[in-house]
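Notes to self after the call with IL:
- keep both proteins in one doc
- input above output, always
- annotate only the second one for now

Protein 1:
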Amino acid sequence: MPAWQRALLQAWKGRGPLALALWPISQIYRALFAVRRWLYCCQLLRSHRLPVPVVVIGNVVVGGAGKTPVTIALVQHLQSRGMRVGVVSRGHGRRTADIMEVRSETPPALGGDEPVLLARRTGASVVVGRSRVDVARHLLERFPDTQVIVSDDGLQHLALQRDLEVCVFDDQGLGNGWLLPAGPMREAWPRPVDLQLHAGEHPAFAGHRAHRRLAPDAVRADGTRRLLSSFAGHPVSALAGIAHPERFFDMLRAAGLVLGETVALPDHYDFDSEKRIFGEGFDLFCTEKDAVKLWARQPDAWAVPLELTLEPAWLARFDALLDAKLSSRDGSQTS
């Protein structure tokens, strides 16, 4: 991570000299965001409603807050109810900008690491592209029996009307509470959303949590599985190309693994440009998102899936809100 980026992340934890120096720019950002929202409210910028309910899972803070694991868990929950679910995403980090249907075998460079992971974990119809409106329309054309569309991220993508908004927070909370670039906020908080969810270990907000833990098994590219506990007692290597790599390393340590080497990489790291071999002489562990790309080069790396559990009371509230949309005559927007 570049030094300027580390300095910015550190500045966002408080309201020190750097954050104060950037505060005037954040007020320009605030004004521009407010004007943009006003243009949509006045219909000077057009927003589009789809014939099926749209659920947006997003956040108001930059960086990874656990949106994709929540999306996976929620899609699996809807599938357990017998619903046909489609997923739309921008596909951050992909090398193309066209609309694309993503399958489990799609190269991550074309489909994006998180959409490929979504397709592998859920088997749902996953479509990516720059415009979520165009992507969602394409999904409905290709899969007309879709009953619900879930958008992985997109809380600030106002061109696509939504029926339910889920705002995800993690342990960083709101940081210093200031807008970009003086703070980590994409938009001002509080703002109306249908549901909140805390996907962290130390709740910073009252309300429901998404409980995270590592799966008991690690898996290789060929499908070989091995109990994570069987690796305890001897040094291993671990890498993570996610927003907060240390969280993965800490979870491995909590599972009893001895990390002789850790490699923290930028989020959505492109392993195709990497020449070195990771973890030489050690068993190498990585996240599922990294494995989507790393396995093409190092199929012997062990991926450790993240299991996320949504509280029954939260799911009951979500189901009640969604069922009201599904049973309504026109699926009208709530916010």
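Protein 2 (the one to annotate):
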Amino acid sequence: MQQYKGWEEFHNKPVEEKLPLFRQGGNIFDVIYAQQFKRTELEELFQIADRIRAISKTRTGTRFLSSLLDDKRAMLFFVQPSTRTFLSFQNACHLLGMKTSEIRDASTSSEVKGESPEDMIRTFSSYVDLIIIRHFNEGFAERAAWTLNVHASRAISVINGGSGKDQHPTQALLDIYTLERSFRDIGGLNGKKIAMVGDLKRGRTVRSLCQLLSLYEGVEFFFVAPEEFAMRGDILDALKARGNKFTLTDNFKEIMPQVDAIYSTRLQDEYDEKRESSAINYSQFIFKEEYLDLLGKNAVILHPFPRRNEIEVGVDKDPRALYWKQARNGMWLRMALILKLFGREHEVHNFA
């Protein structure tokens, strides 16, 4: 398999040194890491998403939205299992008028014949204007963006739709959008206390969300996990550097009355090497219906899904359980992001 020169050197750089490659003219062009976003950019995306939601309520508005990117095409390269992220991106593209192609099984691509990732991505770029990637290998989306920025003959954006145990930036965007909307009328996100619960070591959604939440003043974190799956040191070091307080604990029930939001996650046992997840007693990290009385009246409960038994189904009817709204928010936020990447966001603000 051919190896493109320069990739390993780039890949081994600290994340902060890589970020300029993913911008053009000062604007984000590829979405690979949560660290790419400034708070002002988050707020702009929230405004675009809010505007899209409002426009979509009428037939005229829906027709307008479907004209915004009807000259563009997208590839959904999803070779790791996905339901919500795939459907969210697919519907975001369709609602904006984009034509989509998809590959959902690596065995149906020429990768099985020994084609390099770089050659495969450059082939995709011959047919589309945007490539959205969900891959089981960490760094694959980064590798795709590097390849197209360094070697391709025309500009093609790449969005990381989930990269191994590393990052899931667009999930973090929809999560923080959901939180921002929830707290918009009660002081915003500044100073809020957020509990992240479950397999934090291998949960890419919580890793990305921490990066975005740290952009807000005074956000405090409670990392609730079994010792074996505690939050990794790189995130803790990043929070220390930004002055965010955090607590590591395995006592879920004790912290419930203290927090403004609970972000629950499942065991990421698809990354097990020796069935280590089966040895963990996960029962103390389940949010039960009886615990609702421990939460503040303005507190919220989120989950990136898929859910197993981390949150009892009886909790769903409580208005503080926002995970179904959270899933739908993903479509609006991803529409906003795609419009921003193509520089068409001003059109939704001008719609009368």
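Annotation: The chain has a mean pLDDT of 94. The two ends are 53 Å apart (CA to CA).
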